[in-house]
Amino acid sequence: SDRALSLAAAMNYPELAVRRRPKVAVLATGDELVMPGSKPGPGQIVYSNGYALRALARTEGAETVDLGIAADTVEATTAGIRRARESGADILITTGGASVGDHDLVKQSLEAEGVQMAFWRIAMRPGKPMMHGRLGSMRVIGLPGNPVSSYVCAFLFLVPLIRALSGRKTIHHRRASALLGRDLAANDQREDYLRARLEEREDGTLIATPVMQQDSSLLGNLAAARALLVRPPFAPAAVKGAECEILTLPE
Question: Each residue of 31-41: pLDDT tens digit?
Fold first, then answer.
């Protein structure tokens, strides 16, 4: 921090040991993606994931590399993976192509390039198709294509990884307690991260109210949310006013 630098100088330290900023490369995949400012045609959507992911990484002190959008072919995806290695990236983030459809080629392409996959699919919502592996010294995180799923997974997994590579002592998000702003039904086998609005009472108590629509394509609700409300697997139904756990989102 600026204050720590001032203290170090005052204590007569002319040099300090530091860590290099981690470099994060972001590769989007999908024939359906067009850049902002374009006019989407039939079956096309405007690309947004990379902007949020690179901003999130920079907020955590990382350098970022934009690898653009790869077409839904093994050749194009493989070329993007190779560009990530050539850039010296410490972390490669892919978005889209993580499921099991005919055009979901990311896992196949990563493994063909030699990525040792640690896991593919995870029992959480949103973000089930997420994958993680390593290619030499480069960490690889494969995110779903849906914008909300992509961001939530990056917040939960990419941010701690950047912090760890930066040498920070505290890498995980700290959970806080709040009171539910509305009733919630019982949860299934996946851990839920519900987008929620926050209200602070005069006594400092936080009220977390999950938005009604939790679809992973609804970016407006994510933008309006101030926290993720954590629901463990098989959590029973909860009533308004019950205690809950939240992760606050960056302002």
Answer: 999 999 999 99
Q: Return the closest-CA partner of residue 124 out of 98, 152, 96, 151.
A: 152
Burial 229-250 (b: 16+ CB within 10 A, else e): bbbeeebeebeeeeebebbbbe
Q: Which of 100, 148, 101, 140 is nearest to 124 (CA)?
A: 148
144 by Cβ neighbours in 10 Å (0-12 / 13-18 / 19+) ranks as buried
With pLDDT > 90 as the criterion, what percentage of the chain qualifies? 91
What tens digit of pLDDT does each residue of 152-177 get? Answer: 999 999 999 999 999 999 999 999 99
Q: Which pLDDT band holds residue 102 (cuts at 50, 70, 90)?
A: low
The residue extents of the domains of the chain are 20-165, 176-248
Contact partners, residue 96, CB within 8 Å, separation at least 6: 28, 29, 30, 33, 49, 104, 106, 143, 144, 145
Question: Which homologous superfamily is 176-248 in?
Answer: MoeA, C-terminal, domain IV (2.40.340.10)
Give the residue among 124, 67, 64 at the shortest CA–CA distance from 94.
67
Q: Which CATH number fits domain 20-165: 3.30.70.600, 3.30.160.20, 3.90.245.10, 3.40.980.10?
A: 3.40.980.10
Q: Give the type of residue at 163.
A: R
The Cα 147–Cα 109 span in angstroms is 22
Burial class (CB in 10 A: 0-12, 13-18, 19+), 190: middle
